[in-house]
Amino acid sequence: MTDTSAPAETADATAPVIAFLGTGSMNGSILRGVLASGVSADRMRATTRSEESAQKLAEETGVQVFASDADAAANTRAVDGADVVLLGVKPYAILELCDEISEALSPGTVVVSVAAGITLAAMADHLPQGQPIVRSMPNTPSSVGRGVFSVTGGEHTSQEQLDTVSGLLSQVGTVVNVPEEQIRAVTGVSGSGPAYVFLLAEMMQKAGQKLGLDPEVARVLAKETVSGAGVLLSREDADAEALRKAVTSPNGTTEQAINTFLDGGIEQLVADAVAASANRGDAMEQEFCG
Ligand SMILES: NC(=O)C1=CN([C@@H]2O[C@H](COP(=O)(O)OP(=O)(O)OC[C@H]3O[C@@H](n4cnc5c(N)ncnc54)[C@H](O)[C@@H]3O)[C@@H](O)[C@H]2O)C=CC1
Ligand SMILES: O=C(O)[C@@H]1CCC=N1
Question: In this protein, which residues make up the domain named Pyrroline-5-carboxylate reductase dimerisation (predicted)?
Answer without folding.
Answer: 180-282
